[in-house]
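Researcher: Next entry in the queue.
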Amino acid sequence: MTDKPLILGISGASGLIYAVHAIKYLLASNYTIDLVASKASYLVWQSEQDQRMPPDPQEQEQFWREQTGIPNQGKLRCHRWGNVGATIASGSFRTLGMIVIPCSMSTIAKIANGMSSDLLERAADVQLKEGRKLVVVPRETPFSLIHLKNLTTLAESGVSIVPAIPAWYHKPQTIEDLVDFVVARTFDQLEIDCVPLNRWQGQD
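Model: Structure for this entry, 204 residues:
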């Protein structure tokens, strides 16, 4: 593990459970997370969980720790979505890279076209210009031609694209098992191995 923080972006796509599990495993493994949730994610959380996500950074840190059940481990710094003067908005702030989970197609489009209308998009743009690892987890179906073109642009720019598509060879028993598969494969892109997963062992 390293002292460099990992940036975790949460956009307004359905499936915020992916973000909760990602935060849980990173904190449990004592990673440092700089977290930014987009404006739309507040609305999605309210819709999916019937619960308010606090905008205040300190209150939001406590909120995510309560959601994950990890009260003390790791380091978690939350940033307001509109604070484009935050540390993660600068290339001089060194990081392990960035994961956007889940990632809406609106966020995909803005990153692919160099638009930085909020801190999440700016942080992603910084990872690209600095040549750091950026991983996006799109959660949409079906993909339109526009979606595919934007995803292709990101892939050609070196972005790792990990769609929220679980497998079944690990014999999942719960929804959480399916979520963890996607989170584990996402972390694989950054060579982070902290999710218990029955990986494919091949066939005799």
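Model: The helical segments are 17-28, 39-49, 57-68, 105-112, 119-129, 145-156, 175-188.
Researcher: Noted, moving on.
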